[in-house]
Automatic annotation (TrEMBL):
Belongs to the glycogen phosphorylase family. Pfam families: Phosphorylase (PF00343). Keywords: Carbohydrate metabolism, Glycogen metabolism, Glycosyltransferase, Pyridoxal phosphate, Transferase. The modification N6-(pyridoxal phosphate)lysine is found at residue 678. SUPFAM superfamilies: UDP-Glycosyltransferase/glycogen phosphorylase (SSF53756). This is Alpha-1,4 glucan phosphorylase.
Length: 833
């Protein structure tokens, strides 16, 4: 009864706790105090950004409480294995909204902010997102650290604190223009610098051998210079659980005392030059997903963040009183593609050179620690570095790679005697011409697990680029199909749908996505379908307003929103969708009274700045839009929009408004895709090929609820082997001929018949991504899509079933797979610890 009394008391007179209180009064008080003591403002003279900062600091305080408790509990326990997710990219997206959801104080914060005279949505819109990634790979890393926290897996994400993230895209005259992303300009309330945890990283110089006190032959690295890594931590809260992990990103700085010699000799400029050189390492994210082979700074970035992270992990391990060679018992490292794969050699260097662990013991430790995820089959994305560059930048690491390779190749020749082809293919060093270090080979040698990101992708990996490795180490191979976090991509971005689902099946699903199955019966409930339709319509109205604001194009919210948003790449085939648009336009031009389903085609995505064809595809989309959108014959039945600057913030507004999701890559080329999952979760139907995770999405939602078209991966390979002839297809398909002729006629380029020639010539004479082969199948499938759209009840039934059957694609499930198959790590309940 005492407890009861105090409850009653607290409810009527809350004790305000400005650092951890979750009630409206505490939040208000905390915001007001942060506003004054951190920003020097009062609520009456605040700018929106100052208010955003104050609200975010208020949330950050609460996260720190959880982070502190989590880390104390973890570090108190000697038997916990932690995950280290190493990634050159974390495409985090805005933080305020998800943190409010994870802390379960969205409503309280809304009210607090409202009582202060503002709206939470306006404040959230103020946030400049940390775009520290290019696309799928970086966004996956962000989803995974979210899910690790939510699954109560003790984990640290390790990466680089780029001063400039992925460029901002603007469209001028239909072309992409890149603008520097100054995301730190207005301050970052989510991070804390931890200068006392700084570590140094060596570069350049030479190595030498010496005898240690036990007369053992050892090596040491005499670098030219050192660079200091300063960690910046961002808390990563779990969803409605007390666990809070963190993301630790490294900023490079000049090593304080290092260049004092030249400074003292009066060479002030040399000292400053060294400072600039050091700070450059974490200056900018590389936007290219293609060949980076010659980019010295990129290799420096990779080694810098890997070395910082491993030193930090060793420091943590030793703090637990661990022995260096037991490192693998404390840590499971996941290498997000080959970008951090130099970790294999660097961990060996630390164990052998710095802690004098025997080579064989160190090798066992290293292999038991590291695992590698491959994210692409595209040969141009397989990283390799000139041996000379390695020798120049990190000479000791190269020696260790040579030693690893020497021992490994001995093993290969004894397993496969006389197979010289295998030997040269599996060698870490490519010796076919100029010598290169092959990063995927280094990863495969030094990792106990290797995985692809969707079932099809893993099979193709095993058959194609990693075939030799399967023969050597079959037990190392796994599949872990990608997933996405429903907290950000449904709860936060689609409140209308979320509330409808909660009304119908309760609120357990965001943390347990299989629960969505309970929605299935509602697909046959006309009243529910109507509510579902009206949620979608509201989302489309919001997007339509934004499209008007950003592009000037007026679109009809009741038309079908046909959306393709992702990086622009030929294998993703944005231009196949353009061919379809032109085919529809031609049908209208041939018969202006034709009965045609009104559609709004929405594209978005960045092209790598050096990828000419991708940039020309953006220009083509905009050019076709200019003609189609303004032709009176079209009568607004078709609209084509290129939504500029596709990023996480914009993505959150686009997925909820989509009716049709375009997942039309050439089969066998898209490793998984994750946008495909976000669309389905938000009730879009997919038109797609049997590629990446599309295969599994179709399996889950049912063949009848998925618009499938196109060649299979095996058929694509067959066609290539048998001498694929795109021109022959063109000659035999009148609609296709008319479409291509229309482009070549200059109709979309003010009479310039050359502008888009690189695209059409490539399609007619090479067509490496088989658009010609899939064209007629795609058009036929799109016609079926249009027919289905006319039956609103049927369309919505299918869309609801898509939502209901997406449980598998929560990143929570992916993380559970990694824990069971690869990391051998269990959830750690800090309340029970
Ligand atoms: C991407 C793949 O292209 C995409 O299919 C996949 O869903 C995503 O990774 C996450 O696994 N790959 C990259 O972004 C990349 O840079 C080297 O690969």
């Amino acid at each position: 009864s005492n407890a009861n009394n105090s409850k009653v008391k607290r409810a009527s007179a809350p004790t305000i706790d400005v650092r951890s209180g979750m009630d409206v009064e505490s939040l208000k008080q905390a915001i007001t105090e942060h506003l004054f003591y951190q920003q020097g403002r009062n609520i009456v003279n605040t700018s929106l950004n100052d208010l955003y900062m104050a609200v975010s600091h208020t949330v950050h305080d609460r996260l720190l409480q959880h982070e502190h408790k989590t880390m104390n509990a973890v570090f108190d326990n000697n038997n916990v294995r932690l995950v280290s997710y190493m990634s050159a990219e974390f495409l985090m997206g805005p933080q305020l909204g998800v943190n409010l959801i994870d802390l379960n104080i969205m409503a309280e914060m809304e009210q607090a902010v409202q009582e202060l005279g503002f709206s939470l949505n306006t404040i959230m819109a103020q946030e400049e997102e940390p775009g520290l990634g290019n696309g799928g790979l970086g966004r996956l890393a962000a989803c995974y650290i979210d899910s690790m926290a939510s699954q109560q897996i003790p984990a640290i994400g390790y990466g680089i604190r780029y001063e400039f993230g992925i460029f901002d895209q603007v469209i001028r005259d239909g072309w992409q223009v890149e603008i520097t992303d100054k995301w730190l300009r207005n301050g970052n309330p989510w991070e804390s610098a931890r200068p006392e945890l700084a570590v140094n990283v060596k570069f350049g110089g030479h190595t030498e051998s010496y005898l240690d006190s036990n007369e053992y032959l050892r090596y040491r690295w005499k670098p030219d210079y050192m660079v200091t890594g300063i960690p910046y931590d961002t808390p990563i809260m779990g969803y409605k659980v007390p666990s809070c992990n963190f993301l630790r990103l490294w900023k490079s700085e000049a090593e304080e005392s290092f260049d004092f010699s030249s400074f003292n000799q009066g060479d002030y400029y040399k000292a400053v030059e060294y400072k600039v050189k050091s700070e450059n390492i974490s200056k900018v994210l590389y936007p290219n997903d293609e060949m980076l082979g010659g980019k010295k700074l990129r290799l420096k970035q990779q080694y810098f963040f890997v070395s910082c992270s491993l030193q930090d992990m060793m420091n943590i391990h030793l703090r637990f009183d661990g022995k260096p060679q037991d490192f693998h018992k404390r840590w499971a490292i996941q290498l997000n593609d080959t970008h951090p794969s130099v970790a294999v050699a660097e961990l060996m260097r630390i164990l052998v050179d710095e802690y004098h662990v025997d080579w064989d013991v160190a090798w066992h430790t290293t292999c038991s620690t590291c695992s590698y995820t491959n994210h692409t089959l595209l040969p141009e994305a397989l990283e390799k570095w000139p041996v000379g560059l390695f020798a120049y930048l990190i000479p000791r690491v190269l020696e260790i790679i040579f030693e690893i390779n020497y021992r490994f190749l001995k093993e290969v020749s004894s397993r496969f005697p006389g197979d010289n082809g295998k030997l040269s293919r599996m060698s870490i060093i490519d010796e076919s011409g100029e010598k290169f270090v092959r990063m995927a080979n280094l990863a495969c040698v030094g990792c106990c697990a290797i995985n692809g990101v969707a079932e099809l992708h893993t099979e193709l990996l095993k058959q194609q680029i990693l075939h030799d490795w399967v023969e050597m180490f079959p037990e190392r191979f796994h599949n872990v199909t990608n997933g996405v976090t429903p907290r950000r991509f449904v709860v936060l971005s689609n409140p209308g749908l979320s509330n409808l689902i909660i009304e119908s099946i309760g609120d357990k699903w965001p943390g347990k996505l299989d629960e969505l199955r309970k929605l299935e019966p509602f697909a046959d409930d006309a009243a529910f379908r109507e509510k579902f339709r009206s949620v979608k319509l509201e989302n489309k109205k919001i997007l339509a307003a934004l499209i008007k604001e950003r592009t000037g194009v007026v679109v009809n919210p009741s038309s079908m929103f046909d959306v393709q948003v992702k990086r622009i790449h030929e294998y993703k085939r944005q231009h196949l969708s353009v061919l379809h648009i032109i085919a529809l336009y031609l049908r209208i031009k041939q018969n202006p009274d034709i009965d045609i389903v009104p559609r709004t085609f929405i594209f978005g995505g960045k092209a790598a700045p050096g990828y000419f064809s991708a940039k020309l595809i953006i220009k083509l989309i905009n050019s076709v839009g200019d003609v189609v959108n303004n032709d009176p014959d079209v009568k607004d039945r078709l609209k084509v929009v290129f939504f500029p600057d596709f990023n996480v913030t914009n993505a959150q507004l686009i997925y909820p408004a989509a009716d049709l999701s375009e997942q039309i890559s050439t089969a066998g080329k898209e490793a998984s895709g994750t946008g495909n999952m976000k669309f389905s979760m938000n009730g879009a139907l997919t038109i797609g090929t049997l590629d990446g995770a599309n295969v599994e999405i179709r399996e889950e939602v049912g063949n009848d609820n998925f618009f499938l078209f196109g060649l299979t991966a095996a058929q694509v390979e067959d066609a290539k082997r048998n001498g694929y002839n795109p021109h022959f297809i063109y000659d035999n398909n009148e609609e296709l001929r008319n479409v291509i002729s229309m482009i070549n006629s200059g109709r979309f380029s003010n009479g310039d018949t050359n502008l888009f020639k690189p695209i059409t010539d490539n399609l007619l004479w090479h067509d490496p991504f088989m658009l010609m082969a899939d064209f007629s199948l795609y058009i036929a499938c799109q016609d079926l899509v249009a027919e289905t759209w006319k039956n609103t009840a049927e369309w919505n039934r299918m869309a609801i079933l898509n939502v209901a059957r997406m449980g598998k694609f929560s990143s929570d499930r992916s993380i559970q797979d990694y824990c069971e198959k690869i990391w051998k790590v269990k959830p750690f309940n800090i309340r029970k610890a």
